[in-house]
Amino acid sequence: MSDLELKEQILEIIENAIQELKEEGLSPDILLAGPQFAQNASEVLDVVGLSVYVISELEYDAVVADSRYLGQIRRASKRISIEPLMVEENLWEEIREL
User: Fold this and answer.
1) Which of 9, 55, 58, 98 is the most exposed place for a label (fewest CB within 10 A)?
2) pLDDT tens track for 8-58
3) 57 C-beta neighbours (distance < 10 Å), count
């Protein structure tokens, strides 16, 4: 998987989470990202138009949320992870090295 393909998949994951929240009648405006998520998705985060906050405890995960309702109603946020993508990428790198 190329770097471009990885970034496209990350963008798709974020856009899907945004769309799911919009379908619930919410207006997602923030993304709380773990440092590894932010590092791997840095270029993508500029495109999505959300305010981004790095939270060290989230590691490879991120939370897309409507800040008006975060903490008030459970469905105001959607947690996503790129860890499965990173595991797959590492697997492909190992195969290429063989």
Assistant:
1) 98
2) 999 999 999 999 999 999 999 999 999 999 998 988 998 899 999 999 999
3) 8
pTM of the model: 0.85
Residue listed under structure tokens 């997602």: 28
Q: What is the dihedral of CA 15, 2, 90, 42, to 10 degrees?
A: -50
User: Where residue 1 falls among pLDDT bands split at 50, 70, 90?
Assistant: low
For residue 42, the one-letter residue type is S
Distances (CA, A) of 22 to 25, 81, 83: 5, 19, 24
Distance CA 6, CA 15 (A): 14
